[in-house]
Amino acid sequence: MLANSIQELAAYAKQNPGKLSWGTPGVGTYSHLICEAFKAQAGVDILHVPYRGTGESMPDFLAGVVHIQSDPVTLPHVVAGKAKLPAVLGHERRPDFPNVPLLNEIYRALDFRVWFGIFAPPGTPQSIVAAMSYAMNKVAGDPDLRQTLFAIAMAPNPGTPEALATLLRDDYQKYGAYIRQFNISAQ
């Protein structure tokens, strides 16, 4: 990447409209939404290059074919010195990169957080849901799991089924608005 910070990236993109490209694992993916939201917030023209997955986009990013990548699997390449980390997503800075800001510290509206959830079919007895939640929260506290996830730019986030339902509903509204704003459709 040509910049050491998000501010430098935005400035470079403004001075060189259309010359930067952002590789994503495909149209409508989380990375694509980040790309479009960043372009809108920063007021820049960056070419979105959709691939058929991160496995295809990463080699092109590392070779300089595309200039920007926003995927957790990029982190090992940052650690190896093959990529720069101008910002991180989430709600807290990474302790291994304490001077790297959160993206939403620079652009408040870019409050992205990648998450995964465990779901059960409708009508699953509450006792089973509670037992699953308890077991998942217990596993989330395992130090080995935390370290493994941390190495790939993730972190366990224990919670309740109700909190997950709220997150799902909020993200559905938030990302639905982005999809409509940027006129993104399945291909």
Please, could you describe this protein's structure?
- The protein is mainly alpha-helical and 187 residues long.
- It folds into 2 domains: 6-113, D-Maltodextrin-Binding Protein, domain 2; 115-187, no CATH class.
- The protein contains 8 helices and 3 strands.
- It has helices at residues 6-15, 30-42, 54-63, 75-79, 103-106, 126-140, 143-151, 161-181, and strands spanning 21-24, 47-50, 68-69.
- The chain has a 3-stranded parallel β-sheet with strand order 2-1-3, sandwiched between helices.
- The longest helix is centred in the last third of the chain and has 21 residues, at 161-181.
- It is globular, with a radius of gyration of 18 Å.
- The chain starts with 5 loop residues before the first helix and ends in a 6-residue tail after the last helix.
